[in-house]
Amino acid sequence: MSESSSPTEPTTPLFEIRDLHVQTVSDGHQPSVEILKGVSLTIGQGEVHALMGPNGCGKSTLASTLMGAPEYEVTSGQIIFQGDDITDWDTDVRGKAGLFLAFQYPQEIAGVSILNFLRQSLSARKGMDMSVLELRLELMDWMERLDMDESFMERYVNEGFSGGEKKRNEILQMAILEPEMAILDETDSGLDIDALRIVATGVQEIRKDRPQLGALVITHYQRLLDHLQPDHVHVMIDGKIVKSGGSEISQELEDNGYEMFL
Question: How many domains would you assign to the chain?
Fold first, then answer.
């Protein structure tokens, strides 16, 4: 009698958000306000998920909460990354573990060159000290792929950068730091068509090198999704995901707006 084959073990999702409820942290003058009201989402390795919704629905609050921003408090629910509950982890620990956030409004860091910033960040992320020469060569390769001038690496982080340069710098960081999971918070905000294409192409270039990379792309616009072709699209209204599906959802929003979900 032959032995029956054992069932395939289920694969652990790369990233899970389980019934997440989040409120603002009271500053003593303003009371706490609940913003996220039970968000659940599961992202597998190599998947791109898009999150869309009107202004004020909680998209950026979700992005900030996923990276552990102190101005938001998780009142219930869990954030699971590679099987670990990271809900209470500090921001720097999440970053070292391989979680990356591309900011909607990247901050300037005066006096710190991109080269030095990335060398320090890479050391913290991977516990390795790449030589300046090695990193310079790596940067030159990625800058060519992202259509960035090599002199860019000597400039101070985001100081005097245009909107498009700031966003390309975020993608450059993502390429060098090699995260397992990337959250792009309205990376397309304020970009013209050419800059948007360059940023989207940069994300796709990274995915060619690292096909296991998972991504949550937060956006208002169909045009970014035309380039990235997400596997799943979710609509957020008033702190909840009200619909999930394929790329046809983004086209519905393009045609009819968010009123159909209100």
Answer: 1
- Note whether residue 224 is domain-resident: yes
pLDDT band at 10 (very low <50, low <70, confident <90, very high): low
Domain that holds residue 191: 47-67+98-261
**What distance in Å separates the CA atoms of residue 262 and residue 7, rounded to the nearest whole number?**
43
Q: Which of 45-54, 62-71, 81-90, 198-207 has the lowest mean pLDDT?
A: 198-207
Is 42 domain-assigned? no
Note the helical H segments in 32-162.
59-66, 91-97, 114-126, 132-145
Q: Is 216 exposed, middle or buried (0-12, 13-18, 19+ CB in 10 A)?
A: buried
What is the spatial distance between Cα 108 and Cα 227, in angstroms, rounded to a whole number?
Answer: 28
CB atoms within 10 A of CB 233: 25
Average pLDDT over residues 129-155: 86
- Provide the CATH number for the domain around residue 133: 3.40.50.300
Q: Which residues pair with 181 in a beta bridge?
A: 99, 214
3-class DSSP state of 56: coil
Q: Is residue 31 part of a domain?
A: no
Among 22-26, 120-124, 176-180, the range scoring the smallest mean pLDDT is: 120-124
Strands 214-219 and 181-185: parallel
Tokens linked to 114: 């991109």
85 located within any domain: no
> Would you state the structure tokens that stand for residue 186, as one six-digit string?
């309205």
Do 244 and 232 form a contact (C-beta atoms < 8 A)? yes
Q: pLDDT for 149-168, tens place per residue?
A: 888 888 888 888 877 788 88
Picking from 261, 241, 262, the residue whose alpha carbon sits closest to that of residue 50 is: 241
Q: Tell me: the pLDDT tens digits for 208-255?
A: 999 999 999 998 777 788 888 899 999 999 999 999 999 888 888 888
